[in-house]
Write a structure and sequence with these properties.
By secondary structure, the protein is an alpha/beta fold. Helices cover 51% and strands 15% of the residues. Keywords: Membrane, Transmembrane, Transmembrane helix.
């Protein structure tokens, strides 16, 4: 397969026949046509002698070269020629003939009949020969490619629209795939042909099996994400059940980065199936808001933080400040930004949000106008075991960032929160709820004049993001790669999912539409059973769940919910100008009342007083009720004391 692919690449990369050679061949063919036209005229009319034939033929050399040069017909890539280029060949032939007849009229004593006959024959022969040469080159190339392609992966391209046909055209050159036809739901295009390939149809799984087995189909190629999502419960299921490869084509701009269409094609991933229709945001307004400004991102090397940095870099910020404690991930995002955005002014800073003086240095030196606060601990089981660190980073660290935003006159701080802050059952969720409480109460105090400052605070709250560091999908992939088992905590556990770019676009939009001191929640769509997710990932990898790879249920972990709260309902939210973003109705806290508690969190965290830390969390966030955790005893303790 690799050898075949290299041969195809070499054939496609013969690049393109040198255009001076094409011009030479066109001129030679044109001169021969002129000679044949002159000889034919000589036999049909008297007075057209051998000397006139010679002159007519020699005159054809300069006029052909001039005409073809003017129309640049030699610069077209012949194997990509279309009918739109036919007029150039005809026009070049006509101009050549007119010039030739005019010159012949001056340098010979031919009559009108002889000139008309010679000119007509020359135009007809030249046009036909040039067109036949182009067609012959295209057919020769296609024959060579088709011979080399034998043995490539036999594919059907899904769909019959322009995108599908364009994809087939892109795959003709330098691809390890053999496209044998198009595939469409329903009989509407039965017996049709597109790009000289048949269109096959399916109405049900039986039709699918018939086509796949009869034509030895090895894979279905989808032209884009929309077509994948449209067929995720039908054609994708058929492919999974019968182990037919499922592939997706890259966007055209991705192919342009030094890769052929064949190289950029990849297998469909679980993210493609869980992803939803692309969310529309007011990108022009977002770009106008951030262009030329200094923006700081904490947690810049994490999954959300790094994507925020990519999007901000694309929006043309004046300077981007990256703040994170993780050295290697920071190094990686630095290399990526240097390569993708060579003109971007960005500053990577290794620092910890727990260390206020290190944060102060960044604020003092670079004076950001906006801050995106994504630095946080996020793994529920780890934070359940280390509650003091969870509070110190997620709550106290957020306090440090918010206080410095006020001190240095930052216009807006956007905090990234989580759906686990809704009625939290674990330390991680409660620590993020504390962070929400602090920034919102601080913002309200500023808005009401009880505290000096001009910073507006926006909190964005959403669920799990697909493919984030340490999340369920990368873990399942690793387990499948090692042959299983795939571990799921409970057969009925469900979660909401969103892609990282989708979440970051909504964060940007929420920052734009918020008036400040609000918790913006995102519409997360339908929840997904994790067990179903595991089974689908196993099938996508070409295995059968519980046959090739086992699924093992390990039990809920401490603090883990069976079902996450629905973030956005009519009862708990207020609509905004964006249908996917709502404002959460939450209990408001007085800044003066909660500020002493945050000072106490610092003390308790530093002395690692686990009991005191969790108890204070529960007192400040009364909806925090532990589940399947050792901290359930503190809930009972508070009930006995009448605090709850």
């Amino acid at each position: 397969m690799k050898r075949m692919y290299r041969l195809r690449e070499r054939l496609a990369g013969m690049h393109y026949l040198n255009y001076w050679i094409v011009l030479l061949l066109d001129v030679i063919a044109s001169v021969i046509c002129s000679y044949l036209a002159a000889v034919t005229t000589r036999y049909l009319t008297p007075g057209f002698d051998d000397l006139t034939v010679l002159r007519f033929t020699l005159l054809s050399i300069p006029v052909s070269a001039l005409s073809f040069y003017l129309f640049r017909i030699y610069k077209n890539i012949i194997r990509h020629s279309t009918l739109r280029e036919l007029w150039k060949l005809l026009a070049a032939s006509a101009v050549k003939t007119v010039l030739l007849v005019c010159c012949a009229c001056i340098w010979s004593d031919l009559n009108r009949k002889q000139l008309f006959l010679a000119g007509s024959m020359d135009l007809l022969l030249t046009a036909v020969v040039l067109i036949c040469m182009r067609v012959g080159m295209v057919l020769t190339y296609d024959v060579l490619v088709s011979k080399i392609a034998k043995g490539g992966t036999r594919l059907l391209i899904y769909g019959v629209d322009d995108a599908s046909v364009a994809l087939e055209t892109r795959l003709r050159n330098g691809s390890p795939y053999q496209v044998i036809g198009f595939y469409n739901f329903g009989k509407a295009y039965k017996s049709y042909r597109l790009a000289d390939l048949p269109v096959y149809y399916f109405n049900n799984e039986e039709d699918f099996v018939h086509v796949v087995s009869r034509h030895n189909v090895e894979g279905i190629l989808f032209p884009d994400n929309d077509s994948v999502r449209a067929e995720k419960e039908r054609l994708i299921r058929y492919c999974e059940a019968h182990r037919v490869k499922m592939l997706i084509a890259p966007p055209v701009d991705e192919v342009g980065k030094g890769r052929s269409a064949g190289e950029a094609i990849r297998a469909i991933k679980i993210e493609d199936l869980l992803g939803r229709e692309e969310i529309k945001v007011n990108e022009a307004e977002i770009i106008a808001n951030f262009k030329g400004r200094t923006v700081m991102v904490t947690g810049a090397a994490g999954s959300i933080g790094s994507e925020l940095c990519r999007q901000l870099a694309g929006f043309g910020v004046g300077r981007l400040i990256l703040f994170d404690a993780a050295e290697t991930p920071m190094h990686n995002i630095r290399l990526e930004l240097e390569e993708r955005f060579p003109n971007l002014d960005f500053v990577p800073i290794i620092g910890d949000v727990r260390l206020k003086q290190r944060l102060r240095m960044a604020f003092e030196r670079y004076r950001p106008s906006e801050v995106f606060h994504a630095a946080a601990y996020k793994h529920v089981p780890l934070m359940e075991e280390n509650p003091c660190e969870a509070v110190f980073v997620n709550a106290v660290g957020t306090r440090h960032v918010a206080d410095l935003c006020v001190e240095f006159g930052v216009e807006k701080m956007v905090m990234i929160s989580t759906d686990k802050a809704v009625n939290p059952t674990n330390v991680m969720g409660a620590s993020k709820r504390l962070a929400e409480i602090y920034v919102q109460s601080l913002g309200v105090a500023i808005a009401e004049g009880r505290k000096k400052g001009r910073t507006r605070f926006v909190t964005t709250r959403f669920g799990n993001v697909l493919g984030s560091n340490g999340s369920v999908i990368p873990r399942f992939m690793e387990q499948i790669r090692h042959g299983g088992p795939v571990t799921v905590t409970h057969p009925d556990i469900t979660r909401f999912f969103m892609t990282i770019p989708e979440a970051c676009r909504l964060v940007m939009e929420a920052a734009m539409i918020s008036e400040g001191n609000e918790i913006m929640v995102f519409e997360m769509g339908e929840s997904t059973r994790i067990a179903d997710l595991a089974k689908r990932m196993i099938r996508l990898a070409g295995y059968v769940p519980d046959v090739d790879i086992q699924i093992k249920y390990t039990g809920l972990r401490p603090g883990e919910k069976l079902y996450e709260e629905v973030l956005s309902t009519q009862e708990n939210t207020i609509p905004t100008t964006h249908q996917k973003i709502k404002i959460a109705k939450v209990r408001k806290y007085e800044y003066a009342a909660i500020e002493p508690a945050f000072r106490e969190f610092v003390r308790l965290s530093l002395i690692v007083d686990v009991h005191g830390t969790v108890r204070l969390m529960k007192e400040l966030v009364p909806e925090f009720v532990s589940n399947n955790s050792r901290f359930e005893e503190i809930d009972r303790e508070l009930e006995r004391e009448g605090i709850r």
